[in-house]
Amino acid sequence: MATKYLLPQGCHLYLRSNFDDTDEKLYQAAIDAAEKAYAPYSEFKVGASALLENDIIITASNQENSAFPSGLCAERVALFYAGSQHPNIGVKKLFITIAVTDKDPTLVYAPCGCCRQVIAETEKRQEKPIQIIFEGHDNQFIQSNGIAPLLPFAFKLPE
Ligand code: THU
């Protein structure tokens, strides 16, 4: 199927018809989570759901603050929660969804740069890539096999 933009290598179109039961569950969980966002300043509600290796699903939403940089994106709330509550359990999949009434069908709602760096660290910690699924244009989804396609040259400290 055609896309309106070039997908980086390692990213694929992922249609709702490709979803298995777990994907459906994760997608619904992310949508429900987005509704719980605290986003009074941007009114841009984001939901994330993470599937752990032990099949636990963690959900999170963005949490804003009147001191703007003190807020946090949904993805990082999810991954930091997973890392703190389940430090030795890997994350298999991360779904990201947006709950806005006027969703622009031409936009791709990919994770922000800071969240990409945190996803990279999570992969480093678990030594396994995370399948990342986010919203593309026209109700399509994009799946990235790990963070590398979205974040080449991720920052790493020398070992
Ligand atoms: N936001 C996320 O939750 N995830 C992202 O990847 C990008 C942006 C949030 C942060 C802020 O609360 C709102 O969306 C607008 O930037």
Which helices and strands, and how do they pair?
Layout: E1 11-14, H1 21-35, E2 45-52, E3 57-61, H2 74-85, E4 91-99, H3 113-126, E5 131-135, E6 141-145
Helix pairs in contact: 2-3
The structure holds tetrahydrodeoxyuridine.
Describe the structure.
- This protein is of the alpha+beta class and 159 residues long.
- The chain has one domain: Cytidine Deaminase, domain 2 (3-Layer(aba) Sandwich).
- Helices cover 26% and strands 23% of the residues.
- The longest helix is centred in the first third of the chain and has 15 residues.
- The chain is globular and about 45 Å long.
- The site of tetrahydrodeoxyuridine has 13 residues, from helix 2.
Class in CATH? Alpha Beta
Helix % is: 25-40%
Q: Main β-sheet: number of strands, strand sense, barrel status?
A: 6 strands, mixed
The chain-level structural class is alpha+beta
Question: How much is the radius of gyration in Å?
Answer: 15 Å
**How much beta, percentage-wise?**
15-25%
Task: Write a compact overview of the structure shown.
The protein contains 3 helices and 6 strands; from the N terminus they run E-H-E-E-H-E-H-E-E.
Which short descriptors sum up this protein?
159 residues, six-stranded mixed β-sheet, 3 helices, 26% helix, globular, binds tetrahydrodeoxyuridine
